[in-house]
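HUMAN: Mind sharing a backbone?

ASSISTANT:
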Amino acid sequence: MGIIVKQSVKGTIYVYLGVLLGFITTAILLPRIYSTTEVGLLKVIVTYSTLIAQFGTLGINGATIRLFPFFKTEDKKHHGFLPLALSVGMVGFLLSTVLLLIFKPLLVQMSMEKSTLMVGYINYLIVLVFFQLFFSILDIYYSALMNSVHGTYLREVFQRVLIILMIALFYFNLLTFHQFVLTYIAAISVPTLYILYTLIREGQFNLKFELSFLDKNLLRSIGAVSLFSILNGFSVIMIQNVDLIMVNKMVGLDAAGIYAICFFFGIVVSLPARSIYKIANVAAAEAWKSDDRKTLRDIYEKSCLTLFIIGSYLFLGVWLNIDNIMQILKPEYLAGKWVIFFIGFGCLMDMATGANSSLMGTSKYYKVQSYLLLILVVLLVSLNLFLIPRYGLTGAAVSSAASLGVLNLLRYLFLYFKYDFQPYNRRFIYVILIGTVAYLIAFSIPVKFHYIFDILLRSTIFSLLYLIPIYIFKISDDLNKNADIYLKKLRIIGKKV
């Protein structure tokens, strides 16, 4: 668990910087500078490209996570795994491009109904798919080398800084909206080149195939894992994005823009989990290779508790300031208030179940995870078809939260009955009690004259009432150890000053 904690701390720092930059972009700049239709366009083209890129990997990312330990060597050539992965990615990209061109008339027809602005930018999906696809492959490969932090930095910080710069150029009339969209696409694409450069610099970019290493059993394993990883990855992306696509189709691009902005505030709850999941995938795969149940149980239990503490803090903190958040946004975004609640609550349920997806996805029962995800996609689409016409944006958020809840319940039951993994104890009750008391006290503070001051006051009081008891009562050993490290550094800096 040491490597997980070490890298997850660094990754979480980058995630929080990303949250701050994302807040500036999503909550302040986009709603004030662009119309809801334009915001919807930006979010929808990224969503479509993410879905297509996920298919384009042809499941090689899943094979990287689960099987790379069998390829890994000290000479950094890793039996030619990287050229194999990139070749699969190129085949997937070409296949995705052909399918995109075939179905382009259908996309145009769908867009013409309620999202005409989208029509002019469908061709640019090919560029986005290319860079998103190969960033995904290179990032997973780099994570398999026990470095999950760099990709997190590029996506959460570097990319968002570039986007803010592009927004500034548009704001000062140095770019037209069309030019801004092109530079927006470029900003999303640049991290792929950066991570490629990093791998070359570190001597990890080797394009020599080692076909003799690929015996029939290994090829069969790669094929099987990749096949189910396609279903797995596509299902995950669908669960994360299908609500936005269906809101765009059933309500319109304006509503999609509102949903996307409010979705950001809800998804903030789960952002710190990204760095933990990435390295947990690698650590779990190594543990399954040697059937180290103790390490697997340790990963599961500690990730559940740590992520529940962080998730509860963020969820309660966001909802505590919900009225202030609504003041930051334009009045038309008020329709998405409960989107924030339900998306945030769904993310909290996901956080509370820790690295369950890592344990299942890297085990010999990885197929079960794929089946569960397919069931959830069907459930999510069905709920959306029923709830969006009746409750609009809130209906889409409820569908998403309910689907996440069901998925994680099924994962928990599987790990419990199959491996007797049970991560929950009385510490979770303590977290709930501490969080409830801290929230109620901070909530009872009278509204102050300005929402910015009100956010700072409530958040400060809530943070002190929540974090200090968590630390004093040593609810999480991992969080306390990291807190002690940073407190020690602060004391050293204080003495020097």
Summary: The mean pLDDT is 85.
